[in-house]
Amino acid sequence: MPENYEHYITKNIKAFYKRRLTAPILYLVLLVALWLLLSLWAPLFPDSLSASDTLESAYREDITYVRMTLSDLKFTGYTRNFFGSVTGYYYYTMRGDECIIVLLSPGTSEQGLPIIDQANFNAKIAKGDDTFELLLGNLAADLNWTENGIRNKVSHYVLSEPDYNMVGNMILYVIFFATGGYALVCLCLFIIYIFFPLLSPPCQDLALFGNPKKLLEQAEEELATLPQLATEDMFITEHFFIETSVYGNAIVPINEIIWIYKYSTLHKFFWYHFSISYTLHISANRHLYIQCPKNIKSDIDGIMDYLSEANHNILVGFSEENRLKVQEIQGTPMRFEKFIAFLNKRI
């Protein structure tokens, strides 16, 4: 334990949020790396091909998603199916000197129109796969061409509108930006709490009981001058219970505490039990709940004994009787079970 508790609470709040900076920073770096390496921005901003760009040259330049306007599209008579449902209709058309195969969605092709005068759509440039090769073989037979002949005339790359798949991409983008936004907000808040500890949640919880700045200053002064009881990360001063652990920080006026109890957790690996830790639970007025996890039994017992002596109104130990007393003191907020009961009553 440190010998000097000068501004100890504030220092620990700063240290706690400095440690928590690592996770959002690493996550944001990962998102940026994925955004650049996987070209996740490409479906949002499809490229437009110039008249001189072939599908092969665009594909080799890593242009995958494009916005196309094509004319005089002719239906090949073949479709792409998935579990019995038609997902696309194969068309062919001339684009400059290049004959290309285009896979249109059922909506754009209006369920396979024989000829489409003009179509505007977003598509993905894909290299021909086994299905594409089979399509060319069937077309060659229909046109009485040799397979080598049709392969010399038709581009080996296909424009696929169904594979643009903006629905799937939108799900990815929602997850991507939602989690990234959350990480960015957390990062900004942690930085604010480091520079302005008074704005952090542990200090703002004091606003339930008075002026948080004055209460924090009082707690700091009492801890620095004469702590009544001190463990590794829990302290009791004349008027406050204070926690400064790697799991969180808390400052609670002793006269506002109404219930304390401990809960044991058995840690095991498969069948081997290797340790037991204890969590101190504190309920205070205004529905403030504090947990101090992973402590040893003697420390928590000492804290509970001292708190019960400092405030004789504190309920000690977990029991249904104490839970009901606390509920009577606190009042019951709108919980899930009350909401269900309300619905049942209305039904």
Notes on the protein architecture:
This protein is of the alpha+beta class. 40% of the residues lie in helices and 31% in strands. It has 11 helices and 13 strands. It has helices at 8-19, 22-37, 55-60, 130-143, 147-153, 166-195, 201-204, 212-225, 297-310, 320-330, 336-346; strands at residues 65-82, 85-95, 98-104, 115-127, 154-160, 229-230, 234-236, 240-245, 248-253, 257-269, 272-284, 288-295, 315-316. A 5-stranded mixed beta barrel has the order 1-2-3-5-4. A 4-stranded antiparallel sheet has the order 6-7-8-9, with helices on both faces. Strands 12-11-10-13 form a 4-stranded mixed sheet, covered by helices on one side. The longest helix has 30 residues, at 166-195. The radius of gyration is 34 Å and the shape is elongated. The model has no long low-confidence stretch (mean pLDDT 89).
